[in-house]
Amino acid sequence: MERQFCINWSAIVEEAKQRRKTQRLTQARLADMAGVSTPTVSRFESGDKDIQLSTVMSILTVLGMNDQRNLIFPELKPQYIPNRRVVLFFGQDGDKEIICAISEEALEDHFDGDEKNSLKLFRDNRESIEHEARRKYLAESLETDGSILLKTEDFD
Fold first, then answer.
1. CATH for the stretch 9-62
2. Which of 32, 39, 48, 77 is deepest in the core (most CB within 10 A)?
3. Do 45 and 17 touch, CB atoms closer than 8 A?
């Protein structure tokens, strides 16, 4: 499933400039902290798009604009929980374990699961399910207990 993804370069540049000024950093100080040259920061702030991505990421990291979260699924041992009608699995962000679940309804609705085994459906569609769990995690669309619950509407 391909999704449209757009980057608003001018909004990123403008936010970076405002953050630099709010933090009372000169272009020279920001450049020093990011490990780049002052002319590079100046080119970035003028909207130049011909700058290496690693350089931009260094600048954005110093300004607190680089999201370092990364949800991975290292050891997938899904469990079907019949009383909740979900498949339970776990993600990892650094040392933090994230409880994840997908409803049986979502498995059936989105992955054509009429009368199929929920664990088999999960395993067969693991990549898509992990992608959606990661998306919800990064969007901070969590349950009150900090877990992720994937429902039918999350896949529409």
1. 1.10.260.40
2. 32
3. yes
CATH 1.10.260.40 placement within the chain: 9-62
pTM score: 0.68
Phi, psi of 8 (to 5 degrees): -95, 90
Do residues 23 and 52 lie in contact, with contact meaning Cβ atoms separated by under 8 Å? no
Six-digit token pair at 16? 């970076």
Tokens of 101: 């679940």
- Classify domain 79-155 at the CATH topology level: Double Stranded RNA Binding Domain (3.30.160)
| 103, β-bridge pairs | 86
Residue matched to tokens 């920001």: 30
Specify whether the CB–CB gap between 69 and 59 falls below 8 A: no
User: Residue 12: which of 48, 36, 37, 39 has the closest Cα?
Assistant: 48
Condensed to tens digits (0 to 9), the pLDDT of residues 36-90 reads 999 999 999 999 999 999 999 999 999 999 888 889 998 778 999 999 999 999 9
Closest C-alpha among 83, 150, 92, 98 to residue 121: 150
Task: Note the residue count of the chain.
Answer: 156
